[in-house]
Amino acid sequence: MERAQEHVSPGGPDQPARRPGETGTALELLVHGVGGTTPQEMLNDPRTVRITGDNIAAVFRRADDVDAETSPDAHRRDGPVPEAYVWCNLTSGNGTRALWLLLLPFMVVNLAHWMRPTARGRRRTVRLYGLLVRLAGLTLTVLLVAAACEVALDLAAWQCAGTLACADRHSWLGFLSPTVSDGGWWSSPGRRLALAAFVPTAVTALLWYLSKRTWSDYESQQPIDRAPEPDEDGSPTALGRPGFWYGRRLVARLRAAHTAAGLITVAAAVASAAARRDREPGGPAVLNILGLLLEAALASCVVAVVWVVCRRGRSENRLDRELDERFVRRLPLAALVLLGLALLYAGWERPGWESAGRLPGDLTFGGIALVQGLLVVVLAVVAQILHRTDPDRRAVLRGLGGPAVAMLACALGGVMSGGVSQRVSDWLDGTGTSIEGPPVLLTWQASVIPPLILVLLVLFGWLGRRAWQLARAEREAVARDYPDEAQDRARTRRIAYTRAMAALTDRGPRIVAVTSGVTLLLGAGALVGALTTDETPGEAAQGAYPLVHGAAETAQALGSWLIGLGFILFVTWGRRAYKDAAARRTIGILWDVGTFWPRAAHPFAPPCYAERAVPDLTWRMATWTRTTGGRLVISGHSQGSVLAAAAAWQLAPSARKRVALLTYGSPLERLYGRWFPAHFGPAALSSLHREVDCWRNLYRLTDPIGGPMRLPGDRGHQVDHGPLLDPLAYGRTDLLPLPAPILGHSDYHADPAFAEERRKLLNRLRPDLPGPRHTGEPPCPGPDADPQGSSGRSSA
């Protein structure tokens, strides 16, 4: 593909503007949505040129428009210069992105950090909210490493290698078996554990490497570092702060803490078994003392890790380029030294030591589950306090969206760790009698999956009934929208059903609330059952009523089967996505939504693509308006509209006034405004409307993602066009002789209203007009204008 150098003047975006020629050229910057597309499709031209950017994200123009600003024919243009910003490779570029599925719990808990309610005058409570989410993220790291320890240390090295029947079936474990190897050097339980510890250590090192590598590839781009302008007031959203999209300091510090936590978890798993042996009567006194000292050192390192995680996150009011060197380097190094000492301590010769039963430390998973449950409960209390200080009726679950999502992240971590342990145990123990298997708590957690699925089936049944009722109600609305058409029952039902299914998006919070609440209750029951009985559900229910015993055994067997099926599907999906670009693009859509936010709660979450995309867009808009003195329209579809809004907030107020915003199929209010009220709430969206040149938003009732901005008062009509008709024609017409499709979330350009609103916006970009809000044909109507525009009916 051809390339050209971007025509910009030297210097930063705040230096005096140089206007080459005053050709009157205007710019339209297109930003695509989820799933991605090609620059040829966005620009409707097979010949495109990359004018700035790289293979990950870039800005493209048509080949004929490369030097449009300086071309002598620029004044003859009928419209603006179109540019396409293509960022899809940030989330679905190569096959390694499929491995990000393993980081799903980390991504979800990071989302919970940004879901805090809007609050005023509650700085300490806001900090407490962030601290609790960061601690929940830390427990997920410990849980993942503990699951790796369970597989490698307990199931393989301790149980299987220590049992003749299991070691015989797996010859690769023979050199670790005391019987098969005839007392070989590695057959000592401590040395087996020390050798197996390299597996969870490698997992921790891989997470550290991925976090550091993805930061360099995606998030290391610095935003514009500018001084505040004299008339610049405080914004109601943090998205406009200079340092919001540059979290290098926080990510580096959290990466060090989580890496140290993973290494300490491995060291504790290895050392605890040896220390327990040394504390038995007749154990070596010297090793006992060394074990106590090692455990004290590990406890001190744990305190240091928690303290680092609890510290304030970062400074967003400036571009924070500093690094906490003493934490970033010394803390993981100290944990690595303690791990080496633990391996040396466990590998010391202990005559007569044999492995039997499960590896000591079954309470680890119970302790993690208990801490996670307490953190979620306290987080819910804090979220309610914040919500009551500044209530937002549109916020999901009355401010409890963050705690609910944090609970789901913990549940995902538990299911994934339990699924891996169960599958490895079944693989090692073919007959089911040679080894005891994973901790009892993991079996209890698997057993609560069938009741949870049953509750969800009831909920989905209710949602289906609700969708049917909505579809019936929408049939009359469809008839009103096409009054001059002969009604076709099948066509009407199809349109009404599509609208009803799209409306179910607004009931998503109920699904999250029910799932999170039931998971919390069932998880608490599983924890109590495991700790009080120390038996599997089927064994604990023996002697009870036959119905209770049968239900317990059924739940246990079905839960284990479901976890196995889920694990197989998970691996299969990841493998397919690794090889298939189409499947990888589907996973990329998940990351488009989940990795928009910076890694403020978990450093091992998938990288934040917006820390690359938002600075890209901001630099492009700021430098173009500075060098040309012109105005531009930034046109965003779906997730692209979120990026466009975030980039507009990053501009200086003087540059922001030269930018018009066109959004379509936008989730800015419907999803982001409700789930992230502190950053995309009504006050933030209202301020964006006041500060940009103009803003128009298009949506359809058949769109499950996009929706109106619902700004208060007359500002709502100034931004929102009435819902566009979908399909464009009910039956066959002269212009559309074939049946028009129901477009839903796609192809907004096909609607004539889109071209009309775009034309009005672009007319405002003519340099001969005196000001951004004094044109003869304003696309942002006042309170007396028709809120429906040229087509569609008003929204409810």
UniProtKB/TrEMBL annotation:
Chain residue ranges for the region called Disordered: 1-21, 221-240, 760-796
Swiss-Prot/TrEMBL keywords: Membrane, Transmembrane, Transmembrane helix
Keyword Membrane recorded: yes
InterPro entries hit by this protein: AB_hydrolase_fold (IPR029058)
Transmembrane segments: 98-116, 128-148, 193-210, 256-275, 287-310, 331-348, 368-387, 399-421, 441-463, 511-531, 555-574
Name recorded for this polypeptide: Integral membrane protein
Organism name: Streptomyces violarus
